[in-house]
Structure formats: structure tokens, C-alpha cells
Specification:
With 232 residues, the chain is of the alpha/beta class. Helix content is 51%, strand content 12%. It is built from ten helices and six strands. The radius of gyration is 18 Å and the shape is globular.
Length: 232
């Protein structure tokens, strides 16, 4: 399995009347792959491409990451908007959830009519999300994990990389000599998702090598079930 801009084009070409694509660009590997592939499709899609970087103000390297994102976007001739937010958690608040809420507030306010925000969540992210939802005892809708597409503000959120595992995207990144930043907090196993990613998923992969695709397929089945339940 491999990833190429053609895979991305097949999904985005099916979207109609899109005035502008936005890429949620963290500076990390996954969002860099998405941005790089999309930038190469501008003429085929005939839709302007913009990027947005959210500075959560949580890491000492945050300003350096801003500069990195700006340099990458300048090299790709992609306009970049940088937004700084205060995502510091209060007493008893989850740092991950606080940062997520801050991001989505910005995204919701930013999108204009029919704009599409592309996010680089992939198959491994989806598998982790499903496991987290299971451990929280959620129902069918929660077990659907991350939807491929969903309304967001005046526009829409779209996740075109859900069918691709992290390793495939990294292969593309190395092939095209992309340079990205690594958030050190992603290694902190005190956070639930990181604990699953670094401690649990490697064990599951040893026993069931296709575990991420299997869990992602389960999430898709749950999404279909949730949709049918809503209709019923």
C-alpha cells in the first residue's frame, strides 16, 4: 500500500462547489504530507489552498514551530494563517481536551460558506480513537470514532487520510524529503492516547498485525449503524 496525490485527488474531486480548501497544519509529519500532496493538486482541483496553524502556547518551541510552518508554506506558495490561543488547562481539566476545544473554536469561526477544512487524521488515529471510546463505555455513535466528514461552522470538515496507516504517510514524507517538527508531548504516556499508542498498540500489532485496519473498519461499521439508528 502506498499514498500519492492521486489518492487524495480521487476523494477531493468528488466534493462539489468548494470555494476554498484549508489544511489544519500543525507542522508535524501527517499534516505536512497532506499539505504537500494538496499543494500539488491545485491546478487539477482549481480550488485555492490555504493552511492554518494553531499555536496553543503550551510548548517552549511553539514560536519555532510557527516559523517552520511559515517556511514550509512559503516554499509551497500556500498562504498560511497563524492563530495563537490560550489552551492552558484549568484545575481538573484535560490538557488534550482543552487544546482540542481551542482549535475547533478557531476552525469554526474561520470557515466561510462551503469552505472545507482538511485534517490529517489517519488509520492509526482512528484505531486509537475507537479504543479510547470503548474504554469510556460509549455507545454506537461514540464507537464510530472520527467521522470522515462532518459539518463545521459555515463549512465542512473532511478527513481524507483515514484509509492510510501512519507508516505509509511517513514513507511518502521520506520519499519527498519532507521536514517536520515533532511535538515532545506526543511521547508523554501520562496522556491516554499516547499510552495506547506507545504501550498498547505495539503489543496488539505483535499478535494481530492488521489491528489498525481492523479497528478502523469496526469504526466504519459503527458509523453506518449510527446512521441507520438515526434514520429509524
Amino acid at each position: 500500500m502506498s499514498f500519492s496525490p492521486d489518492h487524495l485527488y480521487q476523494q477531493l474531486a468528488a466534493l462539489t462547489a468548494v470555494p476554498r480548501f484549508w489544511v489544519a497544519y500543525s507542522g508535524g509529519c501527517d499534516s505536512h504530507v497532506l499539505l504537500h500532496a494538496l499543494a500539488g493538486l491545485r491546478e487539477q482541483l482549481a480550488v485555492p489552498v490555504h493552511a492554518i496553524h494553531i499555536n496553543h502556547g503550551l510548548q517552549t518551541e511553539a514560536s519555532a514551530w510557527e516559523r517552520h510552518c511559515q517556511q514550509v508554506c512559503d516554499g509551497l506558495s500556500v498562504p498560511l494563517e497563524i492563530v495563537r490561543v490560550d489552551a492552558r488547562p484549568g484545575a481538573g481539566e484535560s490538557p488534550e481536551e482543552k487544546a482540542r476545544q481551542a482549535r475547533y473554536r478557531v476552525f469554526t469561526e474561520m470557515l466561510q460558506d462551503d469552505d472545507v477544512l482538511l485534517m490529517a487524521h489517519h488509520e492509526d488515529d482512528q484505531a486509537e480513537t475507537l479504543l479510547l471510546q470503548m474504554l469510556r463505555g460509549t455507545g454506537v455513535k461514540g464507537l464510530a470514532a472520527m467521522p470522515r466528514t462532518a459539518p463545521l461552522g459555515k463549512g465542512k470538515l473532511f478527513r481524507p487520510l483515514l484509509d492510510f496507516p501512519r507508516a505509509v504517510l511517513q514513507q511518502y514524507a521520506h520519499q519527498h524529503k519532507l521536514v517536520w517538527v515533532d511535538d515532545p508531548s506526543n511521547q508523554d504516556t501520562r496522556f491516554d492516547r499516547n499510552f495506547l499508542r506507545h504501550e498498547i498498540m505495539p503489543l496488539l500489532h505483535q499478535r494481530w498485525p492488521s489491528v489498525t485496519s481492523t479497528l478502523s473498519r469496526t469504526a466504519q461499521n459503527m458509523a453506518e449503524s449510527a446512521s441507520l439508528l438515526t434514520e429509524l
